[in-house]
């Protein structure tokens, strides 16, 4: 029985953005809190617009309980249409996936989101006509294929005033000057040149308008195969060695074509490989790294571990957490990618060898590896503006198919793969291992991953620069000033006010190298849901744990034959790689120099903030990294306030009070889920086996307990 609290008749209207239209709505919808047994929740109105699905209750109208880290575009109870992953209906206590036309309408609606939130709505007390309209509306607008011009991106760009401040320091790489400046910054302009061959996209629509190639490459060579087989410059190391990428020729070709292409490639390689002065190493990523299908399958399994909407499911899976985590393969893929980046860094740094990454389109795993190598080797890429410029260069202008890989238009699930998320997961590993080396925080990375699904920014909603340019004008390329003024995601003021943006910047960023500083230890959760897999050996050795010749049982099971072959591959000398890795880790860390991730066993962790932030059972009250971060921010504010007072006294200014806004943080009351979720229910670990726990009828009494210390570090395994 649901205890029905009479809904208040107060009219609550959604806050609509420019260009946003209300499509359908339903009143007297009951939104469950994510709790077992108690069926507690709140009444409100469920609405669907051309931008989002939104639940409006009485609290939506008041600004009293607004969180400190408030997103100005997407509220706590808002789900953008692109963020909807799957929708289930509940019919007589049975869940059914909802797609296309519906014959029967459910009594409950469960929405799983790509940012791992789960929403439960009860429609039992809603009028039948409204149920039909809202359910069919939500399913149609969030799950069915749509045209590009139907994205809210275009409605917003047409209606929104263009009032951005233009103070963005991110290099957009849309002009020839941007590329020349980058060449100069990395001192790559001696051997490489920025070319205008693709102006008007006469070489290829997949290539950017401007790009950089070796000086000896002719325009005829670039035009010959529409840019295929041409080494495109990514970055130059301080010693002159360069990182390059190339889109490969299709493998299924007749003999004469293959021979012509082979002769063409041989000629290209000879121009850039001149032993012993200039060496070149080829690395075909399609054979040395997991396929996009493998990555997609692994992530699909992995995210299921976090789409939890009740305590019973959480504790039922907690007892087999390690085996579930291992079976997904996701952490192992992250490890493989990081190891590949270390290999490339070793070639560039130690062997002074140019590295040419090869992939079918050079816009997926090439983007991941080239970005990671630059983050590891170039301290500029570890600043906020530098990292944003890197994403622009390698991904946005570089031609990563965001539209297809994120499946924003629901055209084909075959093309879907979380390639950009894979990069953010890898960068997060570095951020949590070496916090002072990065100007941005893990919160910045989490917010960036959420922004993938906010269609008011053009950054992640096109497959190429050509597609963006042609749709920007709405007509032809000749129209330079088209009607659409797209926003860029790098203008963080659109989503957050200055106070919230403070959480994106790392207060402990090392402005100057501090090699003597010991690294911060990472915190660990009290429950057994540890964030990394344990080593399978009894006595793990740093030297043998990851780089040993024979693969251990864990890797063999996880990766299967294809990647097992790669691990045992004799193409590269494992000794030099191991020596490079061990030698670097034996020295103090230079936060402004080369950074190598620790990739042995448990060093690869789950990105807790992104994946566990909506699960109250996983929170630490007054604990976690946020308690430290909040205290540091408070101290910094106090120091700044004292500095202002000292400056005023020094200048003998006769002023009034110092206008400093006190921070409303109290680290003792914050949860480790902050800033994304405020204090939620206190979760109680069942003392009885999970099966017995499920059968208990009086769970509600436990849920309603006042705050008390519950030790979750018991023998769960």
TrEMBL record:
UniProtKB keywords: Cytoplasm, Sarcoplasmic reticulum
Entry's localization field: Cytoplasm, Myofibril, Sarcomere; Sarcoplasmic reticulum
Domain Myotubularin phosphatase: 173-611
Cellular component aspect of the GO annotation: membrane; sarcomere; sarcoplasmic reticulum
Domain of life from the UniProt record: Eukaryota
SUPFAM superfamilies on file: (Phosphotyrosine protein) phosphatases II, PH domain-like
Main location: cytoplasm
Region (Disordered) location: 507-526
Homology family: Belongs to the protein-tyrosine phosphatase family. Non-receptor class myotubularin subfamily.
Descriptive protein name: Myotubularin-related protein 12
């Amino acid at each position: 029985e649901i205890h029905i609290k009479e809904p208040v008749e107060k009219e609550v209207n959604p806050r609509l953005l420019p260009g946003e239209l209300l499509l359908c709505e339903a009143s007297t919808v009951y939104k469950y809190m994510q709790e077992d047994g108690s069926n507690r929740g709140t009444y409100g109105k469920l609405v669907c617009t051309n931008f989002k699905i939104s639940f409006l209750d009485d609290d939506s109208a008041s600004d009293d309980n607004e969180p400190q880290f408030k997103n100005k575009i997407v509220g706590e109870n808002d789900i953008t249409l692109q963020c909807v992953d799957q929708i289930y209906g509940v019919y007589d206590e049975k869940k059914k996936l909802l797609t296309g036309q519906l014959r029967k309408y459910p009594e409950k609606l469960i929405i799983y989101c790509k940012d791992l939130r789960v929403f439960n709505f009860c429609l039992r007390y809603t009028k039948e006509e409204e149920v039909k309209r809202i359910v069919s509306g939500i399913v149609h607008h969030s799950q069915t294929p749509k045209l590009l011009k139907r994205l809210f991106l275009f409605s917003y760009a047409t209606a929104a005033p263009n009032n951005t401040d233009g103070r963005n320091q991110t290099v957009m790489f849309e002009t020839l000057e941007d590329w020349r400046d980058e060449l100069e910054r990395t001192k790559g302009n001696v051997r490489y040149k920025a070319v205008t061959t693709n102006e008007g996209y006469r070489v290829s629509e997949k290539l950017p308008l401007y790009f950089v190639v070796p000086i000896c490459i002719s325009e005829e060579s670039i035009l010959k195969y529409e840019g295929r087989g041409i080494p495109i410059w990514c970055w130059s190391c301080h010693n002159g060695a360069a990182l390059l990428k190339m889109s490969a020729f299709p493998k299924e070709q007749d003999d004469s074509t293959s021979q012509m292409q082979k002769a063409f490639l041989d000629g290209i390689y000879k121009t850039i490989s001149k032993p012993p002065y200039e060496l070149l190493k080829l690395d075909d990523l399609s054979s040395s790294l997991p396929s996009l299908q493998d990555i997609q399958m692994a992530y699909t399994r992995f995210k299921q571990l976090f789409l939890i909407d009740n305590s019973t499911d959480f504790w039922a899976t907690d007892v087999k957490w390690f085996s579930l985590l291992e079976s997904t393969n996701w952490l192992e893929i992250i490890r493989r990618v990081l190891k590949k980046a270390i290999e490339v860094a070793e070639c560039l740094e130690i062997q002074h060898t140019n590295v040419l990454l090869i992939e079918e389109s050079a816009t997926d795993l090439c983007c991941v590896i080239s970005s990671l190598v630059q983050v590891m080797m170039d301290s500029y890429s570890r600043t906020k503006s530098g990292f944003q410029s890197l994403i622009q260069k390698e991904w946005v202008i570089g031609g990563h198919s965001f539209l297809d890989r994120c499946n924003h238009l629901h055209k084909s699930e075959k093309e879907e793969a979380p390639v950009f998320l894979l990069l953010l997961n890898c960068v997060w590993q570095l951020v949590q291992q070496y916090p002072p080396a990065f100007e941005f925080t893990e919160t910045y990375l989490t917010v960036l991953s959420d922004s993938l699904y906010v269609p008011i920014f053009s950054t992640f909603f096109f497959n190429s620069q050509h597609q963006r340019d042609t749709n920007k004008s709405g007509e032809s390329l000749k129209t330079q000033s088209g009607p659409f003024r797209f926003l860029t995601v790098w203008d963080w003021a659109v989503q957050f006010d200055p106070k919230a943006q403070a959480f994106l910047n790392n207060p402990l960023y090392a402005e100057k190298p501090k090699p003597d500083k010991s690294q911060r230890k990472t915190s660990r959760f009290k429950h057994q849901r540890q964030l990394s897999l344990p080593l399978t050996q009894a006595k793990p050795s740093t030297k043998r744990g990851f780089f040993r010749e024979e693969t251990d049982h864990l890797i063999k099971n996880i990766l299967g034959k294809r990647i097992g072959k790669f691990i045992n591959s004799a193409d590269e000398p494992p000794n030099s790689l191991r020596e490079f890795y061990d030698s670097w880790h034996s020295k103090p860390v230079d936060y402004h120099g080369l950074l190598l991730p620790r990739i042995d066993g448990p060093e690869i962790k789950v990105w807790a903030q992104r994946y566990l932030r909506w699960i109250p059972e996983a929170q630490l009250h007054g604990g976690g990294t946020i308690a430290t971060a909040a205290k540091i921010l408070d101290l910094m504010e106090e120091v700044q306030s004292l500095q202002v007072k000292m400056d005023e006294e020094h200048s003998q200014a006769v002023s009034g009070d110092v206008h400093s806004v006190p921070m409303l943080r109290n680290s003792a009351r914050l949860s480790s889920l902050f800033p994304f979720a405020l204090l939620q229910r206190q979760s109680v670990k069942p003392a009885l086996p999970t099966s017995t726990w499920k059968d208990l009828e009086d769970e509600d009494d436990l849920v309603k307990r006042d705050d008390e210390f519950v030790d979750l570090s018991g023998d769960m395994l």
